Amino acid sequence: MQKEKIILGVDPGTTVMGYGVILCKGNKMELVDLGVVRMEKLENQALKLKKIFEETTALAAKHMPDEFSIEAPFFGKNVQSMLKLGRAQGVSIAAALYRDIPIFEYSPKKIKMSITGNGNASKEQVAKMLQQLLSIKELPKLLDATDGLAAAVCHHFQSGPAGMTSTKYSGWDAFINKNPERASTEKKKK
């Protein structure tokens, strides 16, 4: 019997926070929820952080995830932006800790590599690959949602099914060679 697990993925931000929830049964993934939390109308940083905490704990209460995956902040030149992003990430992590959910953190490059086979893939490329992997009919307008979903899917790929080690691929060709049924499924859909 394959163990089921629910993963909540978050792409932290202080203007828009993206999230995605997947149900994993062995190697199979199913989309449960996908969306964004918008905060551009909130007056100050403290109110935005409060909203992030409240929404993350609400998502955890609604979906009861077994694991929490989050995109790690990247290193940029704008120190103020990095500080705000780090705070947003910290508040999301605190919300998961508050609900006793194990936390896993992945760099943006690791997430992109895991989803597309290219660590420098665009948001659009990641979204399109997720659309195919999870049979998403229509992509959301804000790709922050698919970025949050990508964190969850990356974690699933890294952790593998319960009791198994994750499989690493050297690139797209290696992935297709190991998963020919995925390539043939896509050809049938077209």
By CATH, the superfamily comes out as Ribonuclease H-like superfamily/Ribonuclease H
The end-to-end span amounts to 33 Å
- Strand portion: 15-25%
User: Structural class of the helices, strands and pairings?
Assistant: alpha/beta
* String of helices and strands: EEEHEHEHHHHH
**Overall 3D form:** globular
Instruction: Give the strand order of the largest sheet, numbering strands 1, 2, ... along the chain.
Output: 3-2-1-4-5
Count of β-strands: 5
Sequence stretches where pLDDT stays below 50 over 5 or more residues: 161-170, 184-190
Mean pLDDT: 86
Put simply, the count of helices is 7
Please identify, by name, the CATH architecture: 2-Layer Sandwich
- Proportion of residues in helical segments: 40-55%
Number of domains: 1
CATH topology: Nucleotidyltransferase, domain 5
Report on the architecture of this protein.
Helices cover 48% and strands 20% of the residues. It has seven helices and five strands. It has a five-stranded mixed β-sheet with strand order 3-2-1-4-5. Helix 1 packs parallel to helix 2 (79-98), helix 3 (108-116) crosses helix 5 (144-159) and helix 6 (172-178) crosses helix 7 (180-189). It is of the alpha/beta class. It has helices at 45-63, 79-98, 108-116, 123-133, 144-159, 172-178, 180-189, and strands at residues 4-11, 16-25, 28-38, 67-71, 103-106. Residues 161-170 and 184-190 have low confidence and may be disordered. The chain has one domain (4-189): Ribonuclease H-like superfamily/Ribonuclease H (Nucleotidyltransferase, domain 5), CATH 3.30.420.
